[in-house]
Amino acid sequence: QVQLVESGGGLVQAGGSLRLSCAASGRTSNVYDMAWFRQAPGKERERVARIRWSDGTTLYIDSVKGRFTISRDNARDTVSLEMNSLKPEDTAVYYCAARNGVGYGYNYWGQGTQVTVSS
């Protein structure tokens, strides 16, 4: 089992920045990659960014490329999401997630943290 605890989030004006952090504990040696998802009201949950634990390879959705940066600290078992140039459409509940392999679904989830971007 892996436990994930998010921190960060909040209210920010458009163009501002926020940083989300996710601390992992438990059987983290089995984690293949970690990701940040978001879900806005009335919309489906989408994966915003992910990072492979072994080599730091990252992947982003087009709408956040150049604005968001996902990073990891293997020694502390944490993953962060630096969000810059925030837009109102970035408003959502953001979730940290982890999985044990590329063929697996994300089966470990944090509790979620609200990000609200005002125009």
Structural summary, described in words:
By secondary structure, this protein is mostly beta strands. The chain has no helices and eleven strands. The protein has strands spanning 2-8, 10-13, 18-26, 33-39, 46-52, 58-60, 68-73, 78-83, 92-99, 108-109, 113-118. The strands form two sheets. Strands 2, 4, 5, 6, 9, 10 and 11 form a seven-stranded mixed beta sheet that branches. Strand 5 and strand 6 form a beta hairpin. The radius of gyration is 13 Å and the shape is globular.
Low-pLDDT residue spans: none
Order of secondary-structure elements: EEEEEEEEEEE
* Shape field: globular
User: Care to count the β-strands?
Assistant: 11
What Rg is obtained from the alpha carbons, in whole angstroms?
13 Å
Portion of residues in beta strands equals over 45%
Alpha-beta classification: mainly beta
Average pLDDT number = 95
Largest sheet, in brief, is: 7 strands, mixed
Helix content: under 10%
Notable features of this structure?
single chain, 119 residues, seven-stranded mixed beta sheet, four-stranded antiparallel beta sheet, 11 strands
SSE blueprint:
Elements: E1 2-8, E2 10-13, E3 18-26, E4 33-39, E5 46-52, E6 58-60, E7 68-73, E8 78-83, E9 92-99, E10 108-109, E11 113-118
Parallel strand pairs: 2-11
Antiparallel strand pairs: 1-3, 3-8, 4-5, 4-9, 5-6, 7-8, 9-10, 9-11
Summarize the structure.
By secondary structure, this protein is mainly β.
